[in-house]
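Page header: ASSEMBLY MODEL / two components / 401 residues total.
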Amino acid sequence: MTQDELLSSLRDFDTALNSAEVQTFFAAQDPQVKSQFVALRLKVSERVAQLGNAQLQSISQSLDQLSGDLSAGISNAQAELDHLDRAIGIINTISSVVGLVGRVLAIA
Amino acid sequence: MKVSRLIIVLTLVVSTMTAGCKPAKEYANLAQAGTTYAVAIDNLLVATGNIEIDATSEKLLSNAALSPISLKQYRAASANDEELLEIIAKLRQHVKLLSRYFGLLYQLATSDAPDRAATAIGNSSSGLIGNLNAVGTQLRGSGFLTGNAAVAAGPITKLVVSGIIRGALRDELNERQITIRKELDLQERLLKALSARIQHDLQVTQQIREQRLVIDPLTTGKAIAKPDEWASNRRTVLTMKLTADQLQTAGDDVKKLREAFESLISGDLTLDRVDSLVADFDSLLTIAEKLKG
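Prediction written out in full:
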């Protein structure tokens, strides 16, 4: 049984323990039985949450390993955008300078 | 005449440069699908935390209705919720990175740089060519670039810049392909894990709330004090899991995104397919927003 399968089975068990029928049944039992049942039900919920957290933690750690390369991709894409803007800016600057030269020549 | 030939050669060069590159629209749509996915998964992460805390609260109430809960038992239940919130915060940080990556790819793919470059280059009477022509006329009585050549300069510049952008997108995705494959594989696992967790938590919450708000007041043998409120509670409780059930196919959406990425890399991606992917992620986003409340 894999960890995911175990988690799935425990969730089914947890769901069954929290059904209206089970709650109604134990509501009619004596205090000691109720107390033992509550302790068991809380333990099952705790294990389900722990396994679920471990599953997400494992995915999170694997994703963290990719963050560096993703950041490099972000820098690369940003650099491309900046490069395009700079190139167009340079053309516009040259164009303005040539325009000024044209006006000076027209006056002279 | 020489200029006309130069334009033909330039057009051929541009055609060669852009051949084999996917149209920027396909890159843009794939990046849009990725960005929408990132927003959806971020909403789902927030929803997972809220729904889990609610489920724990309902369980504590249900247990306390049978037998008193000790402080130790309460702390143990809360500790797991707090740990989940910490993991979710880390996952959201990574999702922000993913969102920024796809966002920049989209920005690059939809950049107006080709049009701005064409305007900057201009034609016989505007932009750089226009100004050069004015200076040329002042100096030697004729323009630098005139007639068809001047008219074609802007459109050719636009093509060249578009080709540069497509090349940059293709190179970036090629360079990052192993990382993106791993990322999408992990995102598929993450979405399935969140989906299963949300469905379980909502099912348990639904059962306990139905008992607390609907069954108990109905079966006590006394008249229900606020019948309208009871009916409204019953409707809310019975429909609360419907949205979560729609998450069942969500993992397949990420699988489709991964397949679309593979097709883009191999040059087989069609616009229809990527459009359908954008629609799938829009639906996922709607579900995630509903769950986040």
